[in-house]
From TrEMBL:
CDD domains: FkbR2. SUPFAM superfamilies: Thioesterase/thiol ester dehydrase-isomerase (SSF54637). This is Uncharacterized protein. One of its GO terms (molecular function) is lyase activity. It comes from the Bacteria. It comes from Thalassospira marina. Signal peptide: none annotated.
Amino acid sequence: MKSKNNPGNYFEDFVLGQELRHATPRTITSGDVALYTALYGPRFAVQSSAEFARNIGFHDAPIDDLLVFHMVFGKTVPDVSLNAVANLGYAGGVFGVPVYAGDTISTVSRVIGLKENSNGKTGVVYVNSVGRNQHGEMVVDYNRWVMVNKHSLDAPAPETTVPDLPSAVDPASFKIPVGLDLSGYDCALAGSAHFWDDYAIGEKIDHVDGMTLEEAEHQMATRLYQNTAKVHFDQVSANQGRFGKRLIYGGHVMSLARALAFNGLGNAFRILAINAGSHANPAFAGNTVFAWSEVIDKFDLPGRSDVGAMRVRLVAVRDRAAADFPLRDDAGKYDSAVLLDFDHTVLIPKRP
């Protein structure tokens, strides 16, 4: 009798061009928002206050962009990364229409690249994943690559195909929310006096605050996104692995760093794009996360005098302050303290 459970896909199960329609559409509720706030403590006024959001053209307080990202990502795990060794990186991500409480999100992925590793035990799978709301409107479209175990070491290696992914999202691809008007943006209520005009390319910002990763919070967060990857939950399996303990979901670090970044980037209320991202080192319960940012570039938006875009590198580090902006050593290798290198573009109001 055929097994009725889902063992997940192994590297040899993926085929170039394969489409994966992921199960379990998810209606995002105000309860999800409350739990997300309890887990990370984000303080961006647009997502915190319906009245503030409506005053600048949103229908209501939009869902935090990374909560949307995690919900879309979580749908992909049973089909893409249930048997993953590690999620490796992101590129070419664009956020679409705002998501509000009550919207239902579903996800479809397509395999865009395959590369078996030299050890013959694992391979890298590249996928493009698109989340859409109940109206079929895109809410986030991104590429990621993940290292996945092989089930049979004798399975033949596929032809190597590595997709040509952009190093950064073209500003022409940015999706500015319809009706957005920041001419009356209240920086006092937003909690930051710093506008787009006040940041300089090359400027680095120490976000100062630290937050310790807790096992219970990580478990709750990863279940919130319905992310079922074994490396985050199964200690019996982890005992056989390289670290002997469960890994913190990389997206958990991402959301924590983004929340910490409020202290210095309090008006960067919306993420427009994910240019690139790397989980440089694993994180575990008990690590304390600090963060710093670097302004990589700034963009004027056509026809807009009220708002601009800013490309920012957000770096999360563990168990040390970030005042000296750790990133790579002289050989170009990530510092052992660096957990996340997240290159993203944010929307930020211009000075009136």
